[in-house]
Amino acid sequence: MRYDWTVEEITKLFELPFNDLMFQAQQAHRMYFDANEVQLSTLLSIKTGGCPEDCKYCPQSSRYNTDVESELLMKKDEVMQAAKVAKEKGATRFCMGAAWREPKGRAFDLVLDMIREVKNMDMEACATLGMLDAEQARKLKDVGLDYYNHNLDSDPDFYKTIVSTRTYEERLDTLKNVRAEGMSVCCGGIVGMGEAMKNRAGMVAQLARMHPHPESVPINMLVKVEGTPMSEVEDLDNFDFIRTIAVAKITMPSSHIRLSAGREVMSEEMQSLCFLAGANSIFYGEKLLTTGNTEADQDQALFKKLGIRPEERATASSRRVANA
Ligand code: SAM
Ligand code: DTB
Ligand code: SF4
Q1: 287: which DSSP letter?
Q2: H-state helical runs in the chain
Q3: Which residues contact 260 (CB under 8 A, 6 or more apart)?
């Protein structure tokens, strides 16, 4: 496995003829995965809106006038009910998201309790709660959290233009704290924010230079939400999105690359090309955090057409092989 990818090398991958790029991505993918399996994660926003951060893409920032209202932390019973439904529909991982800069006080203890219960239901648990210090990471590990999601979202240069309330370094520090506790890392980004190809290459380089690579790499297509500063950004060409997935797969072949936000408006053919480029995970269920997602039965229908099977839950031993 390589951890020394340069932005120049990654840029060359982006510039390959499309068919060559797809062929390389498929070859890389098949070294580590069954190419006809896709992992299913279901998201739930356990604390919606009212976030003090100013991420220009996000409908949950309190700085922008969007339709998202600020809500209190959900009750544990409601969260467990949602986890149960997700499991019944076939998700193997349940991801709880909170619109926080960082977790604090009693609310954090309540979330720890929710994670404990999700683990009791025999599902993989993931959380995305903002920045973590070392002690918070340890507490999450202690209750059995499998994955922590914390995205880099772009390369360091472009990042400065989309978020002013925290630094790229702070993102990296949280990821270090998560790793230090031995939790799996879910870390990716957003494309279609008006960034240049060199920014996308820079983002993939940041991810692919992590050692080990993030086990899960969500690639989100920006969902343009009215009221956010990015609501009118020009559409990204679909092929540039597919290329980003392929390049992530070639540089991080043993990672699950997740075709994440933005699927609701993608055609079946577009999603199929993303799977061919090496995406083998999706957010599954009719809602992301605050915006819509493809309906589960539509996903099942597409899987049937493509001969794709939902991935069974990974065992500890299969994960070790993947990270060798
Ligand atoms: N507040 C925490 C944080 O920022 O890390 C966790 C929740 S935040 C909503 C998680 C991720 O959602 C962001 O890092 C970003 O990648 C993604 N996201 C937010 N708004 C989005 C949008 N409009 N389109 C695509 N992805 C988005
Ligand atoms: C990730 O990379 N994408 C998810 C999850 N991790 C937390 C969030 C997508 C959010 C899309 C906008 C919304 O629904 O609010
Ligand atoms: Fe808050 Fe996360 Fe949205 Fe940024 S992306 S405004 S930190 S919820």
Answers
A1: B
A2: 7-14, 18-32, 76-89, 105-120, 134-142, 156-162, 168-180, 197-208, 238-251, 268-276, 296-306, 316-322
A3: 188, 218, 219, 220, 221, 282, 283
Ligand nearest to the CA of 260: 2
Find out whether 115 and 145 touch, Cβ atoms under 8 Å: yes
* Size of the chain, expressed as the number of residues it contains: 324
Q: Tens digits of per-residue pLDDT, 228-256?
A: 999 999 999 999 999 999 999 999 999 99
Catalytic status, residue 187: no
Phi, psi of 40 (to 5 degrees): -115, 120
149 Cβ below 6 A of ligand 2? yes
Catalytic residue flag (residue 55): yes
Instruction: Please tell me the predicted confidence (pLDDT) of residue 315.
Output: 52
Quick one: which ligand is closest to 291's CA?
2
What residue owns the CA closest to ligand 3's atom 6? 61
Element (H, E) at 259: strand 256-259
Site to substitute for ligand 3 among 57, 58, 159, 171, most atoms within 8 A of C-beta: 58
Contact 217, 174 (CB under 8 A): no
Provide the 3-class DSSP secondary structure of residue 128.
strand
Mean pLDDT of 193-200: 98
User: Is the CB of residue 43 less than 8 Å from the CB of residue 289?
Assistant: yes
